[in-house]
Amino acid sequence: MSPIEYFWLALLAKAALTAAIIVSASLVVERGGPFLGAMIASLPTSVGSAYIVMALEHTPEFIGHSAVGSLASNVAGVSFAATYALLARTRSLPVSLGLGIAVWLAIVTLLRLREWTLGPPPLLKIGVRGPLV
Which among 2, 52, 91, 111 is placed 20 to 30 Å from 35, CA to CA? Predict the structure, then answer.
């Protein structure tokens, strides 16, 4: 198989796998109702398919480091959402969005200063989101 054929076949397989995971989750949500829908929506369906695709191309160590980094980066996402939600009530869209992005960038910059292991990121998430969120 030529490199061009391999590229297109791999791309098609990745797209089909991602679509299958997302469509399957959508069908389960349709039949399961709002509670099951909320449970499925909180699952990492799009990230899960990305990790499956990455697993086809990278080493297990790379995937492990990516997963731990993703876990730590959730803190920045939650901080952006909280900042935006608090400011959006009283400020304009540009101000709320701008300050939310500034907080996100500051936290991402701080997170990049450390090499993460599996232990601390879940504790950071609990500290930012609370244990039941």
Answer: 52
pTM passes above 0.90? no
For residue 123, the model assigns a pLDDT of 61
**How far from 53 is each of 57, 61, 73, CA to CA, in Å?**
7, 15, 20
Alpha helix stretches (DSSP H) within 44-129:
45-57, 60-88, 93-112, 120-129
Residue count (the chain): 133
Per the rule left: phi > 0, alpha: psi between -120 and 50, beta: everything else, 130 is: left
Provide the CA 86 distance to its chain's centre, in angstroms. 22
The values of phi and psi at residue 92, to 5°, are -75, 165
Rounded (5°) CA angle 120-102-43? 50
Which of 11-25, 60-74, 100-114, 117-131 has the largest mean confidence? 100-114
The pLDDT of residue 35 is: 77
Q: What is the pLDDT of residue 108?
A: 86
Buried b or exposed e, range 51-67, using 16+ CB within 10 angstroms: eebeeeeeeeeeeeebb
